[in-house]
Amino acid sequence: MVAREDSARFFAADAFARHNGIECIEVAPGRAVVKMEVRDHHLNSHGTVHGGALFTLADTAFALASNSHGIPAAAINAQISYLTAAASGPLYAEAEEYAVNPKLASYTVRITNDAAEKIAIFQGMVYRKTPRRD
Length: 134
Prior knowledge:
Structural class: alpha+beta
Order of helices and strands: HHEEHEEEE
Distance between the termini: 19 Å
Low-confidence stretches: none
Helix content: 10-25%
Mean pLDDT: 94
Oligomer: single chain
Largest sheet: 6 strands, antiparallel
Strand content: 35-45%
Number of strands: 6
Shape: globular
Number of helices: 3
Radius of gyration: 15 Å
């Protein structure tokens, strides 16, 4: 298990997430919740949240959850399915570990709004780097 301070430090180093206004709500082993307050710069030409903003939100939760065990993990595959459009309010991404082994781990991230409506579902896999033994 990784210390809470390590997760906070890991998130603080994510300049792209900060630039997009993403906040870390919770991190636990194999799990993370993040929040993004929708702003004008998140919107596309249809007036709804840009798919890239949704992907970034989900990817941030995925990164926090997959690195929550204290073993560096890097994404090797990710996909997202957009279920409905969002245009305002806070959005939440909740990542949950689906399967883990010494080298690979799989995660599902659900994006919802304040009314718990499903906005998107994201699935990703990481490669877990083998810890060095000194």
